[in-house]
Amino acid sequence: LDKELFEDEETRTSKGFHLLGALGYSLGGPLSTMTELSLNDRLFIVQSQVVKQVADEGPCILVGRCADYALESYDNVVNVFIHADLDARIRRIARIYNLTDAKAKDMIIKTDKKRASYYNYYTNKKWSDSESYELCLSSSELGIEGTAKAIEQYVMLKEQIQRDDKIL
Q1: What element of type H or E holds 81?
Q2: DSSP for 84-128, written as a single string
Q3: Which of 41, 82, 93, 112 stands 20 to 30 A from 120 (CA)?
Q4: Closest CA to 47 of 80, 8, 15, 78
């Protein structure tokens, strides 16, 4: 998949139309039938279709792009929200992007605002609201590896319970 299709809307250029044209179809119909929709709306529809196609191919991990919403009719999905306290996030972003703490904090606040706005708009749910997710974890408590391991163990436990229920 071309990563440009999934970039944030503020970093997209008019290439979006070219990418949509190259894909040709979305959610069962030609994109030309969606001309009344904005570029962002059309991209959301295409992204949702791609999320579903990837999920249909087998086990996968999808980050963002309202995947929980796109896959809400799927039974075999675990929706996870990973959060961390602001200080831990500032330290991590400052280190990764070689930023001052103030610039890292500003970047985090702006990114969270964009993510929340995108998610809330397209799903009619509230980003970061625990009711929208099956599992919420704090990576500042568990670390990145611990968080990944907790998700893995949760999925294995859920699959075991489902297998046991089928036996009964």
Answers
A1: strand 80-83
A2: --HHHHHHHHHHHHT--HHHHHHHHHHHHHHHHHHHHHHHSS-TT
A3: 93
A4: 8
The rounded Cα 88 to chain-centroid distance in angstroms is 21
The residues, any chain, with a CB within 8 Å of residue 60's CB and separated by 6 or more, are: 54
Residue 17: strand, helix, or coil: helix
**Contact criterion met (CB below 8 Å) for 37 and 48:** no
pTM (whole model) above 0.85: no
pLDDT tens digits, 143-162: 999 999 999 999 999 999 98
Per-residue pLDDT reduced to its tens digit, 70-79: 999 998 899 9
